[in-house]
Amino acid sequence: EKLEFLVELAAELPPLSPGRRDGPFPATCRVQECQTAVHLWTDVVDGRVRVEADVPKNSPTVRGLVTLVLQVVHDRPANEV
Fold this sequence. Notes:
With 81 residues, the chain is of the alpha+beta class. Helices cover 35% and strands 17% of the residues.
């Protein structure tokens, strides 16, 4: 059931913003030690955390885990995160 839940969440990963989607991904945004090529960007805008992620569609479990993290921290006050 947990695996099915993660696979369902994978479809909910928001697309990258155009500026990030179009350019090459900086090495500093790559999640190290992850076998899947996961890239994360974090920004603080007006005191709120903004997170974007790129995870290959052929890695639905990892996409689901990343989506879960984004749902927890995205748009939260920076001092809470």
